[in-house]
Design goal:
about 100 residues, mainly alpha, 6 helices, about 65% helix, about 0% strand, binds zinc ion
Amino acid sequence: MPILKKREIESLEQLSGEELEQFLDTLPAGQATISALLDHIEDELFESECNHSLQYAMKFMMDNRLDFGKLTHWLTANGGYCDCKIMEQIAPIWRAKFGDD
Ligand SMILES: [Zn+2]
């Protein structure tokens, strides 16, 4: 019986110590970079509506020369299908863990 895989981001709040280190090692970008990505998307969505694409996430990734193939895969695997979904599904858990600045 296959076990339904929980979204990785959902287990983040339980992690600490070595497990948290391992989680961070598997991310497609550094912790500070992902925090900055979330801040960027939030700022952009403050000014304009989400058009249900990853346009602001993409812009940030391009400007910062990030691996957007891997990052986009990670974001969508965790429910972040577009900019507003990233803010809804990923940002609250991320910020609860790492703070929001
Ligand atoms: Zn959206």
